[in-house]
Amino acid sequence: MPDKKFFENLSGKGKAIGVLTSGGDAQGMNAAVRAVVRMGIYVEAKVYFIYEGYQGMVDGGENIVEVTWESVSSILQVGGTVIGSARCKAFRTREGRLKAACNLVKCGITNLCVIGGDGSLTGANLFREEWNGLLEELAQNGEIEKGAIKKYAYLNIVGMVGSIDNDFCGTDMTIGTDSALHRIIEVVDAIMTTAQSHQRTFVLEVMGRHCGYLALVSALACGADYVFIPEYPPEEGWEDHMCSRLSENRARKKRLNIIIVAEGAIDCHNQPITSEQVKDLVVQRLGYDTRVTILGHVQRGGTPSAFDRILASRMGVEAVLALLEGTPETPACVVSLSGNQAVRLPLMECVQMTQDVQKAMDGKRFSDAVQLRGRSFENNLNTYKLLSTKRTAADLPKTNFNVAVLNVGAPAAGMNAAVRSAVRIGITEGHKMFAVTDGFEGFSRGLIKEISWGDVGGWTGQGGSILGTKRALPGKYLEKIAEQMRTHNINALLVIGGFEAYLGLLELSAAREKFDEFCIPMVMVPATVSNNVPGSDFSIGADTALNTITDTCDRIKLSASGTKRRVFIIETMGGYCGYLANMGALAAGADAAYIFEEKFDIRELQANVEHLTEKMKTGIQRGLVLRNENSSENYTTDFIYQLYSEEGKGVFDCRKNVLGHMQQGGAPSPFDRNFGTKISAKAVLWLSKKLKECYRRGKGRVFANTEDSVCLLGMRRRNLIFQPVVQLKDETDFVHRIPREQWWLKLRPLMKILAKYKTSYDVSDSGQLEHVLRPKQAEA
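RESULT FIELD:
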């Protein structure tokens, strides 16, 4: 493992950073601006707002303003961009860029952080390449002094991609995409209830002129009947295919149809497919009552989701580090997300690949276009195709394997999406799928029945657990469970749940010596709001809970607007795992988060109160403190509330709030629906592979008793990985039900820096400029 590297030795003294937002706005841009400003000031650099994008840079004057810590207070939860964005024709000319360079030199700015789409970032790179020539020309014209050419010799550029379309290659998610999906899914969920009442068909048009990401993922997240995207046009004769699928779904007692159309949708001849065209087709061919809803700019608006706030905050800090480390030789880079990992990529490689997608589409090389969009896009498309098309009985393979699915532990939003995905993929694979009600306890009582393709229709958007879930472990029911497995001839098991599901699989695995029935492939998919399962960075349900916490914190902060200074103490769930408290604090802009994993004492509490008192004297009106429910036995929420109330007398007053079970409820977020759907599909495909490997022809049965036949499927940094549960034992703190090492603890200092604390931040993971990986086939 490399030695830990801290950024204390990276100083911004004497440096000036300019931050601008350009092109179309996106939710989360303000979080990125806030992170750049606060991190810049933290490393003692000067930071400037450049208002109205490149237009402000060209116009100069009051458009370029030095900012302070307080300048970005209370903007984290605001959609759009507070520093404005504008399309700028002048910057496309050398004349305009000459003015922009002159304005930057006047302020001493040689570091630019550009938040925008590929057009904005390409413009920034050209500006960087011309920089020296522009300064020389300015000096010749007498607009700047000759010495300035040497003093401001090179311009550093770091980009962050702010675009709701997620149309930039090299990054899994661009800032704003997750929030746009929230807007779309809110509308789809609302439309589904009215469509159900009237047996209607709805055609929804979503944004995405050149990229079908929003359409594809929202189709996956709501179980749409049909989707049209530019990268993967329907084949010739799609009209017949679509109409037959809609009528088949109606014949299976489905009362509504949802069709999603990206605004840039095309057919295989590159001719546009419009939402009106689709509607007219459905009305003429099938006679269904059909309505069109065009979402338009609703998708760009509203408050950013928790995911976008955390993503933008991480990217903003990473961007400042990249600027500080920049040299004349460093190419302009873009900070980006790969899996759960922040990475830096050469800007022009990403732009080139993004442009290659369009070229592939123009040349009708659609499979190349899908590959160039990246692994995540391709997986989404393949999963959607598997889940949306029910093959006829004659087309299905027959494996004679029976696979059981059950939920274990507390309910988590997204469990139902995972069950739906598992059932449908299992049926497509040729297995008989069985649903177990009420977890292991229900299993022992024989609450098992076969579940069909149609039974799980409409499950993706529903919260809680439709199958029913219990915390009971299998240990005390082993004989009865083994008997039920014999009776129903269960050959494989998929368990969707939290820490109890993990303990349950350990118990079943240990019981194999006594019971042959447990010698079958078993896999677990993590689903718990606490996100405390070892072997996975994320669990289904945690994102929904995080959004609930963030929304509630936003409302609580607003409740104090216009009143005197106030501090809120908020208690979150999570058992002993501080994920929700820590990430909620980062997303809501909290001043402190108390968690079990990082011990704290009365001195730290006192320091936090003093720190807040100082902040309140600068004109900041509200403070937010989060506390994980089990962070300390003695420093309870009441204790912290009383301490803050007493110590803050005369400066601020206090309120406390225990969020409770609202964190487990509600409709699942787009992230949880999508994550649950994809991870569950992968788990069932793995079970299929294991069933074939472990089938003993001589005995006519499945027999698996190796460690690697009982696995947990988890997200680790950039990949979904199957890990034998027995091997995860060493990584687990069983007393406190948490993993011994947790990735998000590395983000603790980030929260503290953004809340104005001095701390050390481990940057061992950042700083490496990587190259964009191009798919082999698309290159050929």
